[in-house]
UniProtKB/TrEMBL annotation:
Residues 1-11, 32-53 have a biased composition (Basic and acidic residues). GO terms for molecular function: ABC-type oligopeptide transporter activity; ATP binding; ATP hydrolysis activity. This is P-loop containing nucleoside triphosphate hydrolase protein. Residues 82-378, 757-1042 form the ABC transmembrane type-1 domain. It comes from the Eukaryota.
């Protein structure tokens, strides 16, 4: 199926739940009945039954309190937080003080009107001129003070949050690294890595300047009420009757949002876990055409996250709408009561004026705190899971250097005493059932038995990955629990059947095997000697970069045998006291196996060695062989003793000897065949099998398929690289802002709820200037000497305030709620489309270290979330602010065009200040995005391979790497915070500067007779609130920077052209697939290493019904041939054909549907066993 078809299918499933359509529901390419049938099966609910999941379901942690958010602040951070709080409160005081100045100036203007009424023109003009200069100077001074204080607010809170965010990120990763392996068995590792980027980012946002803005807004509200009490306590007290309702709405907002966010982030982390699982096993997904299934599975999680986000939008909009409603209602009550007491002679017009104006601005500032309260509540919800993991005490802590006995050497006397054990993920399934075993120092023993009998479990217990439920493991006479676990693991070396290498050089991978390499780093010569002993030096020397060759994620750029030899070299350089070999030579060819086995035999001299092997020929010389069956030792002895005993071991030996005899007989017969007899090979095999009562074809297939699948998963075709480069140049030629606008246009279909939201934004934005106009008229009405007229007008205007309360509250509710829903819907669609796009990419894309699993998972989590804020917050605020500017300008033009022109001339200056702020945050956002991707990749790799990390005792090493990656942009971010704070401070101060200029100019216009006092008041109030709205816009500009940068990252995925689209149904297929495969003069290099030729003109045929075996040295190209047959890569030259047709002309899904692969390192997914099959 095409990318569109898969997207349509999953989108329809999402849409059916929400009743919405998505922009991806458009006509795609033709989908065959076969592919549709496969998709229909994905709709069966039992395939996704959660009851089959083995992952732990933890109790939902409660959202942390506000004070607990700051628990990881150090003294410097606390000092910055206290300073930021002081700056916030002080800057909050400036606004009410400005209103006092404003009220006094209004009083001066009213005095001017009285003097003019008395025909004292000269005195009136002189008085107005003098007083306007005085108060406008105060406005300017307040602007300077606001600049300094706002700089302090932004700088202190931003730097403190940056420090705490870095510390939380480091502590979270360190806490993960110190957990016991049993805990990792019960959690989804992908969730852990998603929280490093997504959740910690949200916590940092809540700890930052948004906290300062809340303090600033609340302080302004409190000081405004204090001033109002001083000016007129009765009137203020009446207005306070509304405040409890505002507090209830705000409290409900905070408590509810934090709980919902906790659940939403759990779903986001769960989707990240799915993405991590799928991307880390992407070759298996491709080989079995599992892309559609995984897309549906991923969509189910992001759908759940969307539902929580939509609920958040409704609650956030309703809460802020109620706050807006009650604030306007407060003005209605205040004006009614104030005019009544004015008529009774208790208050003067100036007193009522001062109280109402101060409360007006205080209420406006309080309403501005609500969105920031939401951000803090989001941080509380996100911190719940992050902090709970940081606080978790591991029962087996490898980083605890103080507990237990430390050892520099162990003799290797190991005893298992009545061990009973079940894995934490399956506590009801016993693995060891009274297991007993004694191993003497220096003894070489082997454990054999059927798969799942408990052999490898014993190795996990020796490493103390787990503690037994009953019994004890004793080393050198000491219970293993009494050792310092890190010290003990340093004395143990291990080579497993599926060795893990880390995404660094071959040299570094070998060196990481050494003991205490941080304090005693092994030399390059020592690493090379270890490689020689492991028979790895020859192939390493042939690589263009030799020992400096990067091995890729999980060692994907090397073959299975090459990886295993490096892992053996890693064990050799450790020179361990206890050597554990779990199928250590299973991936090696016969010649290499003999050489490496000799090296292992030499390494095991005079040290305790425990081998687990299915190939019994490798353990003949062991001192003791233990047969494990059903969780206990059923028999033991030397090889000869057990064979003589004629028990289970003897039966296993005879079975393997029989297989080997068949192989030897066939090899001898093949040498005797003439060319015309070669077609009868299968008949010969069948004959031999019949004679020996053994199905050789199955054995041959097993041998063939045991070649490593993951090994050759490298690179893409050269043409793909060229296309990618071309596309990147196109992206580089586009600005981030252009890409953001392009993305908004492309996903306009996901923003349908924003259409009425735009309308409501304009109503919400226009409400404040219109309210200011009515408010100005109401203020003038208070000075009317006719008390009856005062009552009539104030009642009229109070009723208009009530209308504003309903209209403003509803508009605010709709604006915030609808845009939030649009943002969540867009985020859901973006994640879906990005994931679908990733499913179309060729295998080579994932070999690039820039496209590691952790980096891609981080992009899915953070880029879409950052763009969410553009749709959900920035656009909404921008439309509202634009409406405010347009309405205020129109009012000003209606009443006094000179004031309007002056206002228009000033706003670009204020806008430039915000641009200055945005530019500063741009660089910081870019640095952080890069750092988080790289560190996320490192974290994902180590968490996914935590057993290897623990075995090598490399927790501190990787913690150090992670810390350095996150610390790299820290200094630059500190500077950016200072630069952006300068711009933010100036943007906030511009409000004062503009008011000073407009006031002074208005007074001069009045003196010159160009305008009336009523004209000045009407235009002035509109201007003042417009400037304040523009200042509020400065608080969301950092979101704009992050969202624009995220747009580039999104298009790096969406715009990339894939070389081999694994879900594209175009191409040929046949109804009768017989299995004829041909390789004709194939030449191939992985693009990631184009100078290393893997296949150099290979040609062979695999005829229908025939068995073909590919043998040769590790890294010779055997597994590569399999991947080319499945078209996971395209050849450089030559032709791979299936049924006589070039694989490049096949319907790729039909091609892969007719193939099955059993790789050396099989990948199973988080489904039931039945579903995996």
């Amino acid at each position: 199926m095409t990318e569109k078809d898969v997207s349509e299918k999953a989108s329809r499933r999402s849409s059916s739940a929400t009743g919405t359509e998505t922009p991806m529901q458009e006509k795609g390419g033709a989908v065959t009945d076969e592919h549709n049938a496969a998709l229909e099966k994905l709709d069966e609910p039992e395939l996704m039954d959660d009851k089959t999941t083995t992952q732990e379901t933890l109790d939902d942690p409660k959202p942390v309190s506000v004070f607990q958010l700051f628990r990881f602040a150090d003294k410097v951070d606390l000092l910055l937080t206290l300073a930021g709080t002081a700056f916030s409160c002080a800057s909050g005081v400036v606004t009410p003080v400005m209103i006092i100045v404003f009220s006094e100036l209004i009083g001066v203007i009213l005095d001017y009107e009285s003097l003019m009424a008395a025909d004292d023109v000269e005195t009136a003009n002189n008085h107005l001129d003098h007083e306007s200069r005085h108060y406008c100077l105060l406005f300017f001074i307040l602007g300077i003070v606001m600049w300094v204080l706002s700089f302090g607010v932004n700088a202190c809170w931003a730097i403190a949050a940056e420090n705490q965010g870095l510390r939380i990120r480091k502590m979270y990763y360190k806490s993960i690294m110190r957990q016991d392996i049993g805990w990792f068995d019960t959690v989804k590792t992908g969730e852990l890595t998603t929280r490093i980027t997504n959740d910690v980012n949200l916590v940092q946002e809540g700890l930052g300047e948004k906290f300062g803005f809340v303090f600033m807004n609340v302080a302004a509200f409190i000081v405004a009420f204090i001033i109002a009490f001083v000016k007129g306590w009765k009137l203020t007290f009446i207005c306070l009757t509304v405040v409890p309702f505002i507090a209830i709405a705000g409290g409900y907002l905070g408590m509810t949002i934090s709980k919902i966010i906790t659940s939403a982030q759990d779903k986001t982390a769960a989707s990240g876990a799915i993405a991590d699982e799928v991307l880390s096993g992407i070759r298996t997904v491709m080989a079995f055409n599992g892309q559609a299934r995984e897309i549906v599975r991923y969509d189910e999680m992001i759908e759940d996250s969307y539902k929580f986000g939509r609920k958040t939008g409704f609650i956030l909009g309703a809460s802020i709408g109620f706050i807006q409603f009650f604030i306007f209602t407060m003005y209605c009550v205040g004006f009614n009561f104030g005019s009544w007491r004015l008529r009774e002679g208790e208050y003067t017009p100036d007193e009522v004026l001062n109280v109402i104006v101060v409360l007006l601005v205080g209420g406006f500032m309080l309403s501005g705190a609500a969105p920031n309260v939401s951000a803090i509540s989001t941080a509380q919800g996100s911190a719940a899971r992050v902090y709970s993991i940081i606080d978790r005490q591991s029962p087996i802590d490898p980083l605890n250097t103080d507990s237990g006995t430390k050892v520099d050497k162990v003799r290797g006397d190991i005893s298992f005493r009545n061990i009973h054990f079940s894995y934490p993920s399956r506590p009801d399934v016993p693995i060891l059932k009274g297991f007993n075993l004694d191993i003497r120092p220096g003894q070489k023993v082997a454990l054999v038995g059927e798969s799942g009998c408990g052999k490898s479990t014993t190795i996990g217990l020796i490493e103390r990955f787990y503690d037994p439920a009953e019994g004890e493991v004793v080393i050198d006479g000491v219970n293993i629990k009494d050792y310092n676990i890190g010290s003990l693991r340093q004395r143990i070396g291990i080579v497993t059947q599926e060795p893990v290498l880390f995404s660094t050089s071959i040299m570094q991978n070998i060196k990481w095997g050494a003991v205490d390499s941080e304090n005693n780093t092994p030399t390059d010569d020592e690493a090379i000697e270890a490689a020689k002993a492991a028979n790895a030096h020859p192939f390493i020397s042939q690589l263009p970069n030799g020992y400096d060759t990067l091995v890729g994620e999980g060692g994907a750029l090397l073959s299975g045998g090459q990886k295993q030899r490096i892992a053996i070299a890693r064990a050799i350089i450790r020179n361990p006291d206890v050597l554990l070999l779990d199928e250590a030579t299973s991936a090696l060819d016969t010649a290499s196996e003999r050489l490496v086995q000799d090296a292992l035999d030499k390494l095991s001299v005079d040290r305790t060695t425990i081998s687990i092997a299915h190939r019994l020929s490798t353990i003949r010389n062991c001192d003791q062989i233990y047969v494990v069956r059903d969780g206990i030792v059923s028999e033991n002895g030397t090889h000869d003793e057990l064979v003589k005993r004629d028990g289970e071991y003897a039966s296993m030996v005879r079975a393997q000897e029989l297989r080997q005899a068949v192989r030897n007989k066939i090899e001898d017969d093949l040498h005797e065949l003439s060319e015309d007899e070669e077609g009868d090979v299968d008949e010969l095999i069948a004959k031999e099998l019949k004679e020996q009562a053994l199905d050789l074809k199955s054995t041959t297939q097993q041998t063939t398929d045991s070649t490593k699948h993951k090994t050759s998963d490298v690179g893409s075709v050269e043409s793909s690289s060229a296309k990618k480069e071309k596309k990147h140049k196109s992206l580089e030629d586009s600005s981030d802002m252009y890409l953001m606008l392009r993305l908004l246009w492309q996903y306009k279909g996901s923003m349908k709820t924003a259409i009425p939201g735009v309308f409501l934004s304009f109503i919400d934005g226009a409400a404040m200037p219109c309210f200011a106009l009515v408010f100005a008229r109401a203020l003038l009405a208070l000075s009317d000497p006719d008390m009856d007229e005062v009552r009539r007008k104030t009642n009229l205007y109070a009723n208009m305030f009530l209308i504003f309360s309903f209209a403003g509250g509803l508009a605010m509710y709709g604006r915030i709620g609808l845009f939030k829903i649009a943002g969540e819907n867009t985020t859901r669609q973006l994640r879906h489309d990005m994931f679908v796009k990733l499913m179309t990419f060729e295998s080579g894309f994932f070999d690039d270290e820039k496209n590691g699993t952790g980096a891609l998972t981080s992009r899915l989590a953070t880029d879409a979330e950052d763009f969410n804020k553009i749709v959900g917050t920035v656009i909404s605020t921008a439309f509202s602010t634009l409406s405010t500017i347009i309405t205020a300008t129109a009012i000003a033009f209606v009443y006094e065009w000179r004031i309007a022109l002056l206002m228009l001339a000033c706003w670009p200056i204020q806008s430039y200040a915000q641009y200055w702020q945005a530019r500063a945050t741009w660089g910081s956002s870019m640095r952080l995005r890069t750092a988080y991707e790289v560190s996320g990749q490192s974290a994902a790799e180590t968490i996914r391979n935590i057993r290897t990390v623990a075995t090598l005792r490399r927790e501190e090493t990787f913690i150090g790497i992670f810390d350095k990656l996150n610390e790299a942009p820290h200094a630059g971010n500190m500077r950016s915070s200072l630069y952006s704070s300068v711009g933010f401070g100036f943007a906030m101060a511009c409000n004062m500067f503009i008011n000073a200029l407009v006031f002074y100019a208005g007074c001069r216009f009045i003196i010159n007779g160009w305008m009336s006092i009523e004209q000045l008041m009407n235009s002035l109030m509109a201007t003042m609130f417009a400037s304040m709205s523009i200042g509020m816009l400065a608080q969301v500009l950092p979101m704009l920077s992050k969202g624009a940068i995220a747009s580039r990252g999104i298009y790096e995925t969406l715009d990339r052209k894939t070389a081999i689209n694994g879900i594209d149904p175009t191409g040929s297929k046949t109804d009768s697939f017989e299995g004829n495969i041909g390789f004709d003069n194939i030449k191939f290099s992985y693009p990631i290493r184009p100078d290393t030729k893997i296949l150099k003109g290979i040609s062979f045929e695999g005829l229908a019904g025939k068995s073909v075996a590919l043998v040769g040295a590790s890294g010779s190209g055997k597994s590569t041939s399999i991947l080319l047959a499945q078209r996971l890569y395209d050849v450089n030259s030559g032709n791979v054909s299936v049924e006589g047709l070039d694989v490049r002309n096949w319907d790729i899904m039909a091609l892969r549907n007719n193939m099955a692969l059993v790789g050396q390192e099989p990948v199973l997914f988080n489904y039931t066993i039945a579903e995996n099959i």
